[in-house]
Amino acid sequence: MRVTSGSGISSIISVVLLILIAVSVGIIIYAFATGWVGSRLSGTIGPSTILTIEKGWCNVTLNYGSKTVSIVRAYVIDPIGHVYMQTYSNPVQVSPGNVSEVTVNPSDLTLHIGYTYKITLIANDGTEASTTIKAT
User: Fold this and answer.
1) How far apart are CA 9 and CA 11, in angstroms?
2) Residue 96 phi/psi, 5° resolution?
3) Who has greater pLDDT, 114 or 35?
């Protein structure tokens, strides 16, 4: 077999280029991960609470997060996809580790026994909690 010198990239230059590419990609991934994870841990971006609906017709909400939030809106989606919204003029405060009662009853919604409805609560910081209930 005969080896001829061609006009390709030398093996040393190609190794250096591969190392530069790998280091660049590593720096980009590191910057993304620390910026995104760091902001999530510090609570500066996005919701800082975890709301759950504990029972029934959306009358009890528990805050597992670290900040007090206010429930400002509620949505009910009926079985055929109609969305009913309720806005609270006096938002319900939910403190960390505490339970608060939130009544969801949009004025234009009629419940039908045996049908399933999805309820979503929205807090002032964007946190959402959803549950599905069956009207009885």
Assistant:
1) 6
2) -55, 130
3) 114
The third-level CATH classification (topology) of the domain covering 51-134 is Immunoglobulin-like (2.60.40)
C-alpha–C-alpha distance, residues 76 and 84, integer Å: 5
Share of the chain above pLDDT 90, in %: 4
Three-state DSSP at 86 gives strand
Buried b (16+ CB within 10 A) or exposed e, 16-42: eeeeeeeeeeeeeeeeeeeeeeeeeee
For residue 23, give both structure tokens.
Answer: 């280091």
Residues counted in the chain: 136
Give the 3-state secondary structure of residue 27: helix
* pLDDT tens digits along 34-60: 665 555 555 555 555 666 665 554 445
